[in-house]
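Ticket #4471: structure output looks truncated?

Reporter: J.K.
Steps to reproduce: submitted the chain below (296 residues) through the standard prediction queue, then opened the result file.
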Amino acid sequence: MATKNFEKKSICIGVAGDSASGKDTFADAVVQLLGSEAVTVLSGDNYHFWDREKPAWEVVTHLNPMANDLSRYARDLAALAAGDSVEVHEYDHSLGRSSELSVIEAQQIIVAQGLHALYSVEMRSQYDLQIYLDVDEDIRRKFKIKRDVRERGHRLDEVIATFERREADSIDFVRPQAQYADVVFSIRSDNFEALGRDSYEEDLSLYLEVKKKNKRYSEDLTATLENVCKLDISQDVVDGTPILRVRGSVTEASLSEAAANLCPEALKLTRYSPLWNNDIVGLIQLITLYEIEHLI
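Returned output as attached by the reporter:
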């Protein structure tokens, strides 16, 4: 049964993206910033209809909306947004099945992340901020191989076959969600061509590309990225969409200084010192916190 946990309306953030695009990493990074006492994460993986061994997966993929209980996902999000707690079966990737029911309580920030987090009107109507994670397809292939082989114990040939089998559903159901995003974070590479496509040991030289719906980022952000974080910034407009490209390495200390300048109100959401990541994940943390600052 749902119970009231938070009196003030939460800020709801929807985060969609393909498999291995960084949705879990994004949600974890927001928790690292503001703490678990301020952030609730609702994972779309909890709404798969079947456990991994079920034969249904032979004819439908996880990327197909019909394989997921999106109506319940939307109801649980609405309940959390209203300040209620919900009961969910959390999906365990190591076992390939759902766990016993657990209670998720509403906090000041709700992050709903998943393959279909921006898919339905019901979900989108709850969000204050919609984000899409758009990793270059060849890079995402490397990320998925690295994650599924090294961290989840799958065989390389199985991972490659799964990637290719899901391609059609990715095109039909996942990638179109980018059109609804207020912010699209894209990860690109300057040296991918020099590396093997289906290996995962090499280090890629990555940079961040940020698309913000309808407008450029203001000068306070870009100037801070250049002057405080010492990053290489360029801006462009492609098909009417402003694009911010950010290259270079960034430290936790410079991100902390930048956040203090740019996001003083958002930082008040936590009683703790934020934990910053380095480089691209840290940049995504800062820009997301900047977006939250403008929602408060």
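Triage note (M.O.): checked the attachment and the full token line is present. Residues 1-7 have pLDDT under 50 and may be disordered.
Status: closed, working as intended.
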